[in-house]
Amino acid sequence: MCSKENPVTPPIVPRNYLLTYVLVTLLFSLWGFANDITNPMVAAFKRILLISNFESSLVQFAFYGGYCFMAFPAAIFIKRYTYKKGILLGLALYATGCLLFIPSGWITAFWAFLLAYFIMTCGLSFLETSSNPYILAMGDERTATRRLNFSQAFNPVGSIMGMLVAQQLILARMSGSPEEERFALQQSDPTAFQQLQQHDLGIVIVPYAILGAVVLAMFVVFLAIRLRKTPGEDNRELALGTSFRRLLTLPRYVEGVIAQAFYVGVQIMCWTFIIQYGVYEVGLPADVAQGYNIVAMIIFILSRFICTFLLQYITPGHLLMWLAIAGGVLILGLISMGGMTGLYCLVGVSACMSLMFPTIYGIALEGLGDDAKLGAAGLIFAIGGGCLMPPLQGAIMDMDAISIGGYSLPSVRASFILPFICFIVVATYGYRTFKIHKPKSETSQSA
């Protein structure tokens, strides 16, 4: 399980790739920002438009649906052209989706916001399908998982910025009227209610418009700078059928895609509904509940760096398994105890999730060579777990309390059985990685 230092271990990032590595790593913060300014918008749209938990969670369905829809087209584009062109197209779509928030607010239509989210994440799908395998290819395969973990450590830096913007510039500035008063105003004075909606939607729009301008600036930077190519990147042959069939014969890869879908599902559910838990289970204001989300992200960031360090001594599969088990235990604590103790458990889950995405990614793609481009698309497609599971959890939250014998379990707490199931799947993949699949990154470390 533990490793000995190897005196000939290659550098994590070779010097000739350093500038390219730094620039591409900056992108990880950009999509982290998009993810975590969006999670609190589920609660915001529910309050502004007076819709159900299920309906408001369609924000996540549209957001992560873009990842699913564009993952394989992005992989084909990158295979046909280059990682750089994939990044440029991703930035262009990302900026377009952000700027579409402006007309969406003008027409006060939820479907228009969902379309903007979908286009935005079509761009993010291009960025992630390009950047993750690009980072893996920038050096020796033995250090690929550590290299990706280090890049992914900057993803939550963007995430916490997105959370702060959502808390301070959106949730805290929205009208303080609770939903009950808004329902009453909608019935008694529709004109005043529409004005209130326009005010709050205007607050939502501004950060996304600014984000669109920032992304356009990044587009110009990447257009102007020459990125270093990786070995095999000039191979433009599109043998998609052959590559796909090869991938399907690799249990470590196929199971990795499944595990990634469940991991993304648990991440999005825990971070999206921490506000609903804080509001409905503990009685906190929405912006205060978002503060706990920010604390969770700080823990996530610190844990990411700690876990990246631990990978020098503990195999990825072992660490993945134990963190998933710990996450499941915390979720059980939330369900059984509730209240502030449950909220603390929910915040603590972030420490367990920090390693999971890049580690599953690195294990699943290890040794795939040029098939990694199509393989990466499958792992980005797996982000679709984030579009399916939040609406399911939202539907459970909309239900009445669940009676188990003589015990009544609030639906908000009961809904977290879905994250618990997800952690079981991830723990199983971690176990099978070091017991059955044994990739090079596992076998190169001795017990």
Any overview of this molecule?
- This protein is mainly α and 447 residues long.
- 77% of the residues lie in helices and 1% in strands.
- It has helices at 18-38, 41-49, 53-56, 58-80, 83-99, 101-107, 110-137, 144-152, 155-171, 179-188, 190-224, 240-248, 251-272, 274-282, 286-310, 316-337, 339-353, 356-365, 372-381, 385-397, 411-414, 417-437, 440-443; strands at 402-404, 407-409.
- Helix 13 packs parallel to helix 19 (372-381).
- The radius of gyration is 22 Å and the shape is globular.
Number of strands: 2
- Name the beta content range: under 5%
What fold name goes in the CATH topology slot? Growth Hormone, Chain: A
Number of domains: 1
What's the CATH architecture?
Up-down Bundle
Q: Which CATH class? A: Mainly Alpha
Strand order of the largest sheet: 1-2
Order of secondary-structure elements: HHHHHHHHHHHHHHHHHHHHEEHHH
The radius of gyration computed from the alpha-carbon positions, rounded to a whole number of angstroms, is 22 Å
Outline the low-pLDDT stretches: 1-5, 443-447
How are the elements arranged and paired?
Blueprint: H1 18-38, H2 41-49, H3 53-56, H4 58-80, H5 83-99, H6 101-107, H7 110-137, H8 144-152, H9 155-171, H10 179-188, H11 190-224, H12 240-248, H13 251-272, H14 274-282, H15 286-310, H16 316-337, H17 339-353, H18 356-365, H19 372-381, H20 385-397, E1 402-404, E2 407-409, H21 411-414, H22 417-437, H23 440-443
Antiparallel strand pairs: 1-2
Helix pairs in contact: 1-7, 1-9, 4-5, 4-7, 4-19, 4-20, 5-7, 5-11, 6-7, 6-11, 7-8, 7-19, 8-18, 9-11, 9-15, 10-11, 13-18, 13-19, 13-20, 13-22, 14-15, 14-17, 15-17, 16-17, 16-18, 16-22
